[in-house]
Write a structure and sequence with these properties.
Structural class of chain A: alpha/beta
Number of strands of chain A: 17
Helix content of chain B: 40-55%
Largest interface: A-B, 17 and 17 residues
Strand content of chain B: 15-25%
Largest sheet of chain A: 7 strands, mixed
Order of helices and strands of chain B: HEEEHHHHH
Strand order of the largest sheet of chain A: 4-10-9-8-7-5-6
Structural class of chain B: alpha+beta
Number of strands of chain B: 3
Shape of chain A: globular
Strand content of chain A: 15-25%
Number of helices of chain A: 14
Oligomer: heterodimer
Chain lengths: 414, 143
């Protein structure tokens, strides 16, 4: 772990923790600039999972033998640390899910179907990932509630002025937004939206998938009611995520998945539900993945979330400056100081697939597509964009290679 | 690796053959690749025999592979019968494009034009799409 005394992050040193980065692609060193789609894994996380499998694996909350106890301890220990990581008042409010999407579906189904009806409004944003858009659109349609979208300004930020008009259209019951946009990197004023939601007695649901890896999260300071995130974007394994929810809401809610482990008592006539968080964790959990999730949270906490955030801002500013010089480039999103380490762009007349393909020859991996944000692509008037995204192991030299690669793209298709 | 954008592909991309629209076409369809937003519309005019492809044009926008492959397709099928083209296999087109080891994602780009053409021809003839293409019309949202 390489952190200087001034809490400045040493990305060059941190790279040694990530075995996958030390390889060549098409004869060039890999420049992995797609961390927003998923982050790479440090040896510390891989080792924690291997060690767990080799010494402590068993099912949790079930056996009376030593392995079962060890596994339960590791699993619940991870829950404690992840709950602390987002400053949850209690780890009982932290539910393990498959990913952020499942956490958001849990809220949409278990809270939405009981509490929404005609005359109610569900408010999402034009910047939403499909994971926090489609479940709400679906539940609104099924319950007869209205579905509204907070529009974007020209810089790809939420147009807060539109809130008055939205609230005039019905009873706002749900406000759902991401804290950081996966497509543009925009950091949204979620604390302000939480206050607005609560003013109207609505619940505030935050998709934190893109935020949790990049800034220190305090669910109590944000003031939201639900916060969903995934391990795989913060250097943890895929297949596990977490949902934090306010205890009184979780307790009132119906269960989402039904089956083993989530029950208190099962009889032919009736079944009663277990306590939090088990009520929402039916079936065998992703156990080793949860342990890896805990190790990932330890890893990025040791690197320092403030240091990560600062590092990403510097990279975003540097990338915007470097890419501005590429002829025909169109850059999307807010200025560097109001975005995470994500830069979305197009090159006039060249399809993103072609851009990404030529960059791949240079060993530079970026994303080309709609980023699961079709409403946003529609707003931008494009089918797709290119997106370069950075994390704690990204170094400025990789951004130089991106900029040089884009000049090559221009040459191939010019 | 760089075979993907060899000269002939770039030439078809930059100077597409058969680019345009046929008013009063005998067969027409349009489709998109939802993965990346590539769009292709195809227009076919038959010979007097009502069977041989006399003229084929396309319009659209998208990545170099989808547009170049459709341009190459127009050269391949002109003068052939609707039945022959209806039976044309994916492999035949991919061989003509001549890119070895294309990734599955890019193969979809390459096949967009052929899929749209197949739907246009089978629709004009009132015949069913061959098994190999079943479901592709929905995937490409062909209208």
């Amino acid at each position: 772990m390489a952190v200087g005394a001034d809490m400045k992050l040493d990305a060059h040193a941190l790279r040694a923790d990530f075995p996958i980065l030390a390889q060549e692609i098409n004869g060039k060193p890999l420049a992995y600039l797609d961390s927003a789609v998923t982050a790479q894994k440090p040896r510390q996380v891989l080792d924690a999972m291997t060690q767990f499998y080799e010494t402590s694996y068993g099912n949790v909350h079930r056996g009376v033998y030593a392995l079962a106890e060890r596994a339960t301890e590791a699993f619940e220990g991870a829950r404690e640390r992840i709950a602390r990581f987002v400053n949850a008042p209690s780890s009982r409010e932290l539910i393990f899910t498959r990913n952020a999407t499942e956490g958001l579906n849990l809220v949409a189904y278990a809270w939405g179907f009981t509490n929404l009806g005609p005359g109610d409004l569900v408010v999402v944003t034009e910047l939403e990932h499909h994971s926090n858009f489609v479940p709400w659109q679906y539940v609104a349609k099924r319950t007869g509630a209205g579905f509204r979208m907070i529009p974007l300004t020209e810089t790809g930020e939420l147009d807060i002025d539109a809130l008055d008009e939205i609230v005039a259209g019905g009873r706002v019951k749900v406000v759902a937004t991401n804290l950081v946009s996966n497509a543009l990197g925009t950091i949204n004023p979620v604390d302000r939206l939480s206050a607005w939601a609560h003013e109207h007695e609505a619940i505030m649901v935050v998709d934190g998938a893109q935020a949790a890896p990049h800034l220190a999260i305090d669910v109590q300071a944000i003031g939201c009611d639900f916060f969903a995130f995934s391990a795989h974007k913060l250097c943890g394994p895929s297949g596990v995520g977490a949902l934090w929810g306010r205890r009184e809401l979780l307790e009132e809610m119906e269960p989402f998945n039904l089956g083993g482990h989530m029950i208190r008592k099962v009889q032919f006539e009736e079944t009663t539900w277990g306590d939090l968080p088990h009520k929402f964790e039916a079936g065998t959990s992703p156990i080793a993945e949860a342990v890896g999730f805990g190790a990932a949270v330890d890893y990025i906490t040791a690197a320092g979330l403030e240091a990560i955030e600062r590092h990403e801002h510097e990279l975003a500013a540097y990338a915007l400056e470097r890419l501005r010089d590429v002829p025909g480039i169109v850059l999307y999103g807010p200025p560097a100081e109001r975005r995470a380490g994500i830069v979305s762009f197009n090159i006039e007349g060249i399809h993103p697939h072609d851009v990404a393909q030529v960059l791949d020859w240079e060993g530079v991996a970026i994303r080309a597509g709609h980023h699961c944000c079709q409403p946003l692509m529609h707003r931008l008037g494009v089918a797709a964009t290119n997106r370069a995204s950075f994390y704690l192991y990204t170094v400025p030299e990789e951004i130089d290679r991106l900029a040089d690669g884009l000049l090559r793209v221009r040459k191939v298709f010019g | 690796m760089e075979d993907l954008y060899r000269e002939v592909i770039l030439d078809h991309y930059k100077n597409p053959r058969g680019h345009g629209v046929i008013e009063d076409a005998d067969a027409t369809a349009e489709g998109v690749n939802p993965l990346c937003g590539d769009e292709v519309s195809i227009y076919v005019a038959f010979d007097e025999d009502g069977e041989t492809i006399d003229e084929i044009k396309f319009s659209g926008r998208g990545c170099a592979i989808s547009q170049a492959a459709t341009s190459m397709l127009t050269e391949m099928v002109t003068g052939r019968t609707a039945t022959e083209v209806g039976e044309l296999s994916k492999d035949e087109l991919l061989e003509e494009i001549g890119i070895p080891n294309m990734s599955p994602i890019r193969i979809k780009c390459a096949l967009l034009g052929l899929g749209v053409l197949k739907v246009a021809l089978h629709r004009a003839k009132g015949t069913a799409l061959p098994q190999e293409w079943a479901g592709l019309d929905e995937e490409f949202q062909v209208r």
